[in-house]
């Protein structure tokens, strides 16, 4: 495409190419993580458990009309959902429990 277009489009073409690479990297990562999750479920036995922790939202104590700096500040409560996968003895079924965890620790690595 670069050979057939004016050089003024090169920057835009590069941006689109980068976006495609980011999308393909996301799809590859998603496929890899799904296969790892399925492998962990297949290896689950009655002595183990599988925990999947997912960040849901941040609850802020202020109004909805706040600045971006206030919104992304280290205040409020974070809601995480934890899925607990277990497998009872003598059963092929997997039990799943959902646990909501509220945290007042707003650090990213909490």
Can you walk through the features of this model?
With 110 residues, this protein is α+β, with helices and mostly antiparallel strands. The chain is built from 2 helices and 3 strands, in the order αβαββ. It folds into 2 domains: 1-43; 46-110, no CATH class. 34% of the residues lie in helices and 27% in strands. The radius of gyration is 22 Å and the shape is flat.
Provide the descriptors you would attach to this structure in a database record.
34% helix, alpha+beta, 3-stranded antiparallel sheet, 2 domains, 3 strands, 110 residues, 2 helices
Beta-strand fraction estimate:
25-35%
Series of secondary-structure elements, N-terminal to C-terminal: HEHEE
Tell the overall outline.
Answer: flat
Low-confidence stretches: none
Radius of gyration: 22 Å
Cα(first) to Cα(last) distance is 47 Å
Secondary structure blueprint with pairings:
Elements: H1 10-42, E1 49-59, H2 68-71, E2 77-86, E3 95-103
Antiparallel strand pairs: 1-2, 2-3
Short description:
34% of the residues lie in helices and 27% in strands. The protein is of the alpha+beta class and 110 residues long. The protein folds into two domains: 1-43; 46-110, no CATH class.
